[in-house]
Amino acid sequence: QVQLVESGGGLVQAGGSLRLSCAASGRTFGAYAMGWFRQAPGKEREFVIGIRGSFGSTTTYADSVKGRFTVSRDYTKNTLYLQMNSLKPEDTAVYYCAADPGMQLTTTPDYWGQGTQVTVSS
Question: Please, what is the Cα angle at 16 between 32 and 97, to 5 degrees?
Fold first, then answer.
């Protein structure tokens, strides 16, 4: 069983950066595929970025964030990070940490965090 808690959201100007954190329960953190989704007002939740399970480092990106966002793990702290650079107003959304027990993060992950708001002003 996995519990996820996001933090680090806030208000930032376009072109700025934010670092989101996702604290995960358990001592097998690295075995899960993890990543981030986001949901903008009036829109469907969409995949943003993911990292493979089983202590993998392969990352997949949505085209909209490729080259700007980076995901990483801290195995000691059981924490997943989302480094967001060159933020754009269209990045404004609630960001959700997610996890799946397999190698890849699916469209419908088994576990979700509560979300953290990211607002990018122009």
Answer: 20
Spatial separation of the C-alpha atoms in residues 22 and 49, rounded to whole Å: 13
Query: What would the pLDDT profile of 39-54 be if each residue is shown by its tens digit?
Result: 999 999 999 999 988 7
Please report, rounded to a whole number, the percentage of residues in the chain having pLDDT higher than 90: 75
Q: How many CB atoms lie within 10 A of CB 18?
A: 21
Q: Any idea what DSSP says for residue 76?
A: T
* Structural contact between residues 112 and 96, judged by C-beta atoms closer than 8 angstroms: yes
Q: Strands, E, within the chain: which ranges?
A: 4-7, 10-13, 18-24, 33-39, 46-51, 59-61, 69-74, 79-84, 93-100, 111-112, 116-121
